Amino acid sequence: GKNYREHALEMGSEPPTEPLFFFKPTTSIIGPEDVIQLPKQSEDVQHESELAIVISRLCKDVPVERVADVILGYTCANDVTARDLQHRDGQWARSKGFDTFCPLGPWIETELADPQNVKIECRLNGQVTQSASANQMIHSIADIVSWVSHHITLLPGDVILTGSPAGISRMVAGDVVEVEIAGIGILRNKVASFE
Fold first, then answer.
1. pTM value?
2. What is the band of 15 on the pLDDT scale with cuts at 50, 70, 90?
3. 168 φ, ψ to 5°?
């Protein structure tokens, strides 16, 4: 969380001095072209485009210099967040854990040449809302994976999102949100009210 300085500032806080992580339930995961459902409990659901890391094998206490050995590949992610609930709750489990709140895809890229320098862009109904490079991360990919692995055991298929650039914005029913990461592809999802 808050792994881009400008995003931390737009959220009204200082960037964290060490990686800040939280959990999203597996029930929040959907694929490309699946529908993000807006829950009745929130009036302010926002997109957050992110580079996602997919772990290849069971690992614990991974040194920074060995992180590449435990990464299967990378994909696009949208860390959908009910912003009003996040502020109200004071922690992030409910606001980021609703069903459909973790779109991933369109596939896992196993040969991404320079993941720390890829361009990340989000478009809402065709309009660019987020545009940044992964080199603007406060904590690098290697630092993130190593840090998380020193706190919890990582399993094959675990996904670590790496933080969102500035430019988050509200989504409403009928919107189409696209997360595009250079060298990976486009993750596209429609937005609808929960029925």
1. 0.94
2. confident
3. -55, 145
The reply to whether omega before 103 is within 30° of 0 (cis) is: no
Tokens of 171: 């989504």
What type of residue is 44? D
pLDDT over 80 (residue 7): no
Structure tokens at 163: 């933080």
Calpha distance 73→11 (Å, rounded): 29
Which residues contact residue 73 at a Cβ distance below 8 angstroms, ignoring those fewer than 6 apart?
A: 54, 108, 109, 110, 111, 112
Report how far residue 143's alpha carbon sits from residue 147's, in angstroms, rounded to the nearest whole number: 6
How many CB atoms neighbour CB 63 within 10 A? 11
Determine the residue type at 87: H
Burial 112-138 (b: 16+ CB within 10 A, else e): beebeebebbbbbeeeebbebebebbb
pLDDT per residue as tens digits for the range 51-62: 999 999 999 999
pLDDT score at 5: 79
**Are 73 and 51 spatial neighbours (Cβ–Cβ below 8 Å)?**
no
Burial class (CB in 10 A: 0-12, 13-18, 19+), 168: buried
What confidence category does residue 1 fall into, taking pLDDT thresholds of 50, 70 and 90?
confident
- State the alpha helices, DSSP H only, in 17-151: 83-89, 93-97, 141-149
